[in-house]
Amino acid sequence: MSARGEFSSRLGFVLAAAGSAVGLGNVWGFPTQVASNGGAAFVFVYIILAFALAYPVLMAEFVIGRASRSNMVDALGKIGGTAGKASGIWGCITVSLILAFYSLVAGVMTAFCLSSLSQLFGQAEWASWLMQDMGDGAAIVRNILFCGLFMVLTVLIVSGGVKDGIERWSVRLMPALLAIIVLLILYVMTQDGAMTGLKNYLLPDFSKVMNADLLLSAMGQAFFSMSLGVGTMLVYGSYVSKSEKLSTLGASVALVDIGVAILAGLLIIPAMYVAAHNGVVIFNDAGELIAGPSLIFAVLPALFDTMGAAGSFVAFAFFALMIIAAVTSSISMLEVPVAYVVENKGVNRKKAVWIIAAIIYFCSIVIALNFDDLFGLVIALTTQYSQPLLGLMLCIFLGWVWKRDKVLAELKQGDEQVESSLFWKIWPWYVRFVCPIVIIFMFYRSL
Fold it and tell me: Where is this gene product found (predicted)?
């Protein structure tokens, strides 16, 4: 094993990388996009685009990471010189800002989870304080406090390193996440209104398949749901053994991510229609299903309130699920700048983790204190603008700057027959031409 750490098993890597990809967006973003864009037709398009767009970029990150055996800044610097290093630093800043707002949201999830426990023990006043709306000025103290608690949880895992921290907890948390989703699906399906939601989710409206907005939404969901562009997959790839077949590992990660997104849809959409059956408003003024933070912070808590005694137990399980999804993503985000500071600046890992986490937490506090002005702005700047441009840079470095024979040599280390495979015949050309064009198109449309 290398001194810088390495995943000890294939399963450990797949669950860690899939955990990075599986985050809060899978639970609140994917299901409502499905419901608003032709049901199963969107799922069909999403699966195709996940492998046609996201998987090639995912593979680019894995190959660059394993070949360089280094952090994002040094990895891209070896390929692209000064431009590569600048892109790596840009990626570290972007992922840190994403973690700053992400940990705020995850902190609120933690508070909501504890609120359901407070309800069970009859602590109504404490439960009410914990359940304040995230954007309410009175909730600032709650937001900052629980953001800090979530950040400490992330720090404790990342401090353990690759094998004893990230891998150990990913192998435990991902099965727990899947188990909770399945149990919640089974429970929700017993409720009145669930079958209406299930039909809405599973019955395709193929007339919408070629709709430009549907295609753009599916491309965006496929790209962003796999944590691409900000270096998480590149850094995780740098911890993979040279004997592993990267194309198979990449496909496994993509399949787990897609599978969890589809399972989340099986939970969320029927749950929303159960809420509607119980008198909760689930459509906005435009007649579309409520999505995003409003779904998690308003619609589903209102649903749990209508479930009587069982509501607190269901709420606890659901928000525990959200916390697990958040943690598996947050540890990969924190690892990106940590790997750079440890390897490039020679700082002790535990010291680096605490220093960087403290800086990110300070950014979270600034966002919390200026919530109305900064929260949406930071999300837009990082996920809508910075992330696709970083993905574009990765495609350019691998497809145009890095020599093709070196890319092949890296892939051959875990798969001697890769040169004659369909993957090698398509992938390099695809990353070089198709992915950049599609990403540029997505970025243009997002403007």
Answer: Membrane
